[in-house]
Amino acid sequence: MRLLVRDRILGIGDDYWIEDDRGTKVFLVDGKAMRLRDTFELKDAEGRVLIDIRRKMFALRDTMVIERGGEPLATVRRKRLSLLRNHYRVSLADGGTELDVSGRILDREFAVEYDGELLAVISRRMLSLRDTYGVDIVRDDADPALLIAVAVCVIHLAEKEREG
Fold first, then answer.
1. Residue 135, SS3?
2. Nearest residue to 130 via CA among 2, 5, 10
3. CATH homologous superfamily of domain 2-163?
4. What SUPFAM superfamilies would the database entry show (predicted)?
5. How far does CA 149 lie from the centroid of its chain?
6. How far separated are the first and last CA of the chain, in Å rounded?
7. Do 154 and 103 touch, CB atoms closer than 8 A?
8. Which end of the chain, N or C, is surrounded by fewer C-beta atoms within 10 Å?
């Protein structure tokens, strides 16, 4: 499955659509402005909230929390020892599953893996549209909403780190 994401141009609080390769709107990332902490909602095309994403307030390292239906789904944070590339760890709420996200996050060139197996590739390389990147979900059994939420989190954390 291939999804196309147009980068936010005006920063936090903006909403943006994620489309499939036919141009059909699939997901809406709804940035919640005027909140104490960074908050997003991932909605389907009908406006139903699929996933809530928020920045954890009190954490030693910047952390984003992903919830589905009010229940924790995953926690995203930067790995401590990653010198050359951006590297993030996604800990799923089941307690044992971890996803690795690595690459050039700010350039929108990175991958999401589980136990060494590729789940999704995020890239601008094959697109001629400006300020757009593709999310190629490699595995058929992968959760597209979760992978989009992970991409939103790591990009947001990398941008916050660059600002700081």
1. strand
2. 5
3. LURP1-related (2.40.160.200)
4. Tubby C-terminal domain-like
5. 4
6. 35
7. no
8. C
At 53, list the tokens: 């994403």
- CA 74 to CA 92: how far, in whole Å? 4
Sign of CA dihedral 30, 123, 79, 84: negative
Q: Which residue has the tokens 């059909």?
A: 24
Exposure b/e, 100-111, CB count within 10 A at least 16 = b: bbbbebeebbbb
Q: For 78-85, which contacts have Cβ atoms below 8 Å and span 24 or more sequence positions? A: 78/157, 78/161
Angle at 79 between CA 1 and CA 149, to 5 degrees: 30
DSSP class of 146: H
| CA 68 and chain centroid, separation | 14
pTM, entire model: 0.86
